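Supplementary Note 2. Why include the ligand at all?

Several targets in our set were suspected to adopt different conformations when bound, so apo predictions alone were not considered sufficient. For every target with a known small-molecule partner we therefore ran a joint prediction. The input for fe (ii) ion is given below.
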Amino acid sequence: MSSFMSASWADEVKDRINSWPDAERRATKLDDFWDWIEMVKPFVVGRLALSVRDMPPDCEADTLCLDLESGSVVTATVCNRADTEAEAVFLMAGSYTDWMALVDGYDVGKMVMYRKLMLEKGDTLQFFTAAFYWTELLAAIQSVPTAASDGKLIKV
Amino acid sequence: MTITEERLDQVELQDLNGLAKTDIDDVLDYVHVPTAKIPPYLELYDRYLRQRWNVNDLDFTQDRIDWTERMNDDSRNSFLSIASGFHHGERQVEAELAPLFFGIPEDYKVFLTSHLEDEARHTVFFDRFYRDVVGLEGDGIMDVLDGSWGYIQETFVGPFGLLAYLTDDLRRDPYNKHLQMKYATTYMIWIEGVLALSVMKITLNYARDFKVLPAYYTGFTATCRDEARHVQGGMRFVRQLLDEDPNYVTDIHDTLRTLLTMGAARSGYVYYEPLGWSEERVQALFMDQLHKKLAMVGVSLPADLENMLSMVKPTLAGG
Ligand SMILES: [Fe+2]
Ligand SMILES: [Fe+2]
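The joint prediction is reproduced in token form.
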């Protein structure tokens, strides 16, 4: 199992987003909902950076960079926020505690509504035009088995 | 005085007992006044002082009996899937209002203190309803909110997530009038003016027609009258910004474009039929409510937005 914010974790996240939703997730919502996601995907282009504000020391990276093309992840890497912020179209950041809660299954809608993740770079109206694409992207990340940065198991 | 004026005067003057007998449609009519007749902020504040009600005066005993004995699983479920959007919506509009205070006209600041107090009271009203009638338990407001989360539509996070993030933008840059306009469009035009007033009509019509949930009817009708003040204050503010610079209309249109794009999504069916409604009727209600709010500020919709509005799936929430 990959550790949170490691290169192998980024690879697994990429595969998961690109094959999302799995049959189980798809069945929980109307086809209308997935049709809507397909409708907005062509407009999802550029880099999304997902960052941890207070990553524990000695970790490989604090930010996941997803380069998106029509809603698919072309490359997924981990890096430090300072190295990617200028290039990112959108940058969302949260505390390490809140990221761990997300990986552990905390509701993705609440993650947004209660600002556990904040949009620290990017146009808010443009971001919300694809709102449910982003919450599903968080759900896809959440479904990847992940170990904490110290190797402790979080989610299987 | 015409019959209409007399009815609206009744809405204006009733206390909590009187509101129990007031028709919700009259309260909805009370919201909509032409631009020239939107009261000044301090007059709205004075109205607040006279119309303020005590949420703890409501007795939910009969509602609890109706809920358990007179309503069935279908109507309880439909009711919850609609009311829960309000339970969460009231909390959101209470918690997200503060950053607007910094950069608005002085008289609006005074009125906004009453608006904020109203939203806190509405949050407590729903907290009481979910505890005393639905039977949820919990330590504090958030515990009970977590209990009803499962009933809200996933698309709820569209408009209310947008409000949360615009609040954050405004917190960082409170004097930015483009941001103020985007915020007011999301909060006062869409969430209060369209979503809230539509959902109020649905659940209150149900309670009135089926003669159930009297304390809910009373408190929520009082809530609706409070919303009339919030919407009128908000429309005055929007109008004021437009008078300063008509180009701010672009911010209204851009914000509505995002809201209407999100509004085309739905994740699950809501069964309105047990409450005596259909999706088409709710959709028509949404369109009517948006047109009425825009008429209050003298703004029209470009053709593309008009077309998007006709495809909106109702989000059942409000604040
Ligand atoms: Fe309100
Ligand atoms: Fe409210």
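Residues B 93, 119, 192, 227, 230, 319 surround fe (ii) ion (ligand 1) (CB under 6 Å). The mean pLDDT of chain A is 94. Comparable summaries for the other entries are listed in the accompanying table.
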